[in-house]
Amino acid sequence: MERKQQKHDERLEEYSRALTEFFDRLNSWEQSVVSDTGVSLAQMHLIEVIGNRGRMRMKELAQLLGVTTGTLTVMVHRLAERDYLIRLKDEQDRRSYFVDLSEKGKAEYHHHHHMHFHLVEGIVHTLGERESEQFFAHLKKLQDALIIGVLNE
Amino acid sequence: MERKQQKHDERLEEYSRALTEFFDRLNSWEQSVVSDTGVSLAQMHLIEVIGNRGRMRMKELAQLLGVTTGTLTVMVHRLAERDYLIRLKDEQDRRSYFVDLSEKGKAEYHHHHHMHFHLVEGIVHTLGERESEQFFAHLKKLQDALIIGVLNE
DNA sequence: ACAATTACCTTGATACTCAAGGTAATTTTC
DNA sequence: GAAAATTACCTTGAGTATCAAGGTAATTGT
Description:
2 copies of one chain form a homodimer.
Chain A: H1 2-34, H2 41-53, E1 56-57, H3 58-65, H4 69-81, E2 85-89, E3 97-101, H5 103-127, H6 129-148
Antiparallel strand pairs in A: 1-3, 2-3
Helix pairs in contact in A: 2-5, 3-4, 5-6
Chain A binds a DNA duplex through helix 4.
């Protein structure tokens, strides 16, 4: 019984290492992709979120990025200064702004998106069609679990 | 033929989104775990690397973390000041130092490791034994591919 | 009308990061 | 074995990220 538990833990250890290392690799892949551009990782992430979901208010964007609106104000200011973003007044609620991508921002977004596409092609190539399908199905399943918080306590 | 290609691309799009979102979730999970402690994400990562691989010289650590030695000097200085790390002179090569975890650093490392363990338990719980095995096997396979650079061009 | 809330901005503080330039120790070359 | 090259690390200056706390203006609730 004891031995069985130990073996179980060892496997979890192994899994943990696999996850951590994979995560680190993805991180540095992302880092290296971004460092070829004129924007930082955090800035690219912002661009990505707006590119994916369209223009939105500061508040919403801050929540999606997981930063305070204070942080976001500064980031958006800098990106707008460098012509990646545009800010539009909301006429309905004049406290609010909409943040959207400029043409330059869109170009950056598409370029980055393209890189991701490449990465995924590489993954499919590595795992093969059948296993890729399983793999991404697992990712989706886990993501749902992470959303509803199964993995949080 | 054309339609088939389009369908293929759509699937890759879907995979790309799944990967990105999973990655983001993991990121915020890590962020929330770390924010309960006294150290930053980058600092925790440093502690983790030393905890996993034992004491090492600045140069080596910088390479593993993907930062310059200049950056590392400052980080190590701060963590040593706050008693998470100790620095040891290398008597063989007196230009070098070894960086190692203090007792406090070890405690922090074990705590964080424990959190990872929990996360992995959650994953296994979500996917089930059999599918977990597949999933982590896929991660390992991809990691190897990322190392040798299949996914880099 | 007045109070409470909301959306955003500003400021001050800490941290991360790099590039460039510096020092001291070690290794290589002649 | 002295000079040159390399290596390991440190320092400094500049840009970015981040938050908390406090401020303003607009909106909503009573």
